[in-house]
Structures are given as C-alpha cells and as structure tokens.
Amino acid sequence: MEKKSVIIITNGYSSFISNLHTARIVEIIGVLDCAGDKKLENYVHGKNIPYKTLIQQDKELQKWIKEKNVSLIIVYKMPFLLKKEVYSIPKYGSINIHPSLLPQYRGPNPWFWIYFNMEKESGVTIHRIDEREDHGEVLAQTKFDIKLGVNLKELQSIVEIKSIFLLKELLPKIETIKGKSQDSYFSSFKAYNVANYKLIIDINKIDVANLWHLLRGFPWLIPILYSNFKHKGKYKIKSYVNNIFENENIGNVKEDESNIFLYCKNGIIEVQKYRK
To answer: Among residues 72, 23, 69, 68, which one has the least CA distance to residue 50?
Structure first.
C-alpha cells in the first residue's frame, strides 16, 4: 500500500519526529513547528524535508499546505487549536495524538493533572481534529501503567513509541475507518492550564509520597512551592522518607554539600545537586 504523504505539526524537537521518519510508514513532506526550534529545523533540513515555523494560520500557510498535495496532517504537541480552514485541507483530514485516554484529561495540560491526581494508568489517543478541543472521533487508543515516581520523560517516551505503533495500524485504513464519537463517553475533568500552582498544591496538605511523585514529573515546581529554595544550579529529585519529624517543619529547606532536603507533610524529599 502506498505511503500517505503527511505534514507534521509539532512544538519543537522530540524523538517522535525521528521515530516516525525511521519507521518509514509515511512520507513526511513537511514539518510545521510552533516553537521555531533550531534543533528541529536542523534535523528536518538534514532529511531534506520542508520546514516552516507556524505563527499564523493565514492564507499563506494554507497555500503552503495545499501546494504539497498532502494526504493527512498529524499533530503531535501543539499549543493552540487548528482552524477549520487548515485542518480540512488534507484529503483524509487531520488527526491529533493526545497523551491521555480521551475524553479523560482533555485539554492543554494533561501531564500535570495525571501526576497531580496520582493516576496509576493513562494512555495515548489518536483522534480526528474538529473545531472543538480534543473532541474529534477516537480512531485508536492504548493504555500504559504509571509507576509511582516515574520520570515524565520516561512517560513521554512511552507515548511517542506507542504512537508509532498505533499509526502503523491506523494509517492503512484511514480512508475507511469509522471513529468512535466522544459524545458516547462520559465527559471527564478538563486538563486546563494552571495560572498559579501554589493555589493548587498546598505543601501543608499534600502527602510526601504524592508531592514526591509530582516533583519527579515537574521538578521546576520546587522554587514555586518552597520560597526558601535558593539553589540556582541543576538538581534531581531522588527519594523521600516518611514520618521522621513533626509536621510543624513543613516548608523548611535544608541542604548540605551534595543534597537539598524539602520538608513536607509526613516526610522529607531528598534533592540531589548536580556537580558542575
């Protein structure tokens, strides 16, 4: 069966692009980058694939897409919605890869809420793009387990690998496949962006294991949650210890030459400093 000619829309470099190119299940005839990432631009140019920074969804962009006679647009990580004038151009429309089991965690910030809610499993959903956010027909879906304290990069890698397998199964039947309407699902919590994380995460109330798990996914939250955190270099979230002190120490930050200790409800989280 002839490979589908596709344009990828993404938000900076990720191994998804290289994995998809290596898999050779599609002919990538263009990459639209919402981030204007130099690493992605260099990679794409090295493969002789047309590259364009996606700034506006104007007639110039529509012309760029139409000239390529594209079969399908594949979206992987995009910080805003595609307009109908764009997603309807390809012969077989446009599809999005979303890192959750839609309609669960529909929205722009699924990873944070998956970690915050201590989900033990999540998944990957490929769905058609329509005018509503993460709402089009589900075409393919698969699950994976989430271990306590797993690094976010590891989960993102799982999503990228599983996305390729789903696409291998989906693309040969993209012309005829009937998707499943998300209206038939129970609509769940929307994974909205957070303006103030301190309003969501109360270190006086969140248990040490939950906070450790969250910080393993989002270590950059530490200086937001702990005003006494002064370390300016890189660091790594290590382990945690339960029930070794009185809870009035919550919010304290202590450190030695190698490690930083975050005091929270029912325990301490150990943070390793990176050596220069």
So the answer is: 68
Residues 109 and 248: their CA atoms lie apart, in Å, by: 33
Query: What type of residue is 85?
Result: E
Q: Are residues 144 and 207 in the same domain?
A: no
Indicate if the alpha-carbon torsion angle 63, 68, 72, 77 is positive or negative.
negative
Among candidate residues 92, 42, 49, 102, the one with its CA nearest the CA of residue 72:
92
CA 267 to chain centre: 30
Secondary structure (3-state) at 76: strand
- The answer as to whether 18 is a domain residue is yes
| Cβ 74 vs Cβ 6: under 8 Å | yes
- Residues 150 and 55 grouped into a single domain: yes
Q: For residue 13, what are the domain limits?
A: 4-184
Q: What is residue 184's predicted lDDT score, i.e. its pLDDT? A: 62
Q: Residues 72, 93: contact at Cβ < 8 Å?
A: yes
Residue 203 belongs to a domain: yes
Query: What pLDDT is stored for residue 190 in this prediction?
Result: 87
Residues 179 and 236 in one domain: no
Do the domain assignments include residue 190?
no
**Helices (H), ranges, the chain:** 15-23, 38-46, 59-66, 84-87, 110-116, 152-170, 197-200, 208-217, 222-225
Rounded to the nearest 10°, the torsion over CA 36, 39, 45, 47 is -130
Instruction: State how far the alpha carbon of 88 is from the alpha carbons of 31, 57, 198, in Å.
Output: 17, 13, 40
Q: What is the pLDDT of residue 23?
A: 94
pTM score, whole prediction:
0.94
Helices (H) and strands (E) in the chain, counts: 9, 11
Question: What is the mean pLDDT, run by run of 10 residues, along the chain of 276 residues?
Answer: 90 96 96 97 97 96 96 96 97 97 94 97 97 95 97 96 97 93 73 95 95 98 95 93 76 93 94 81
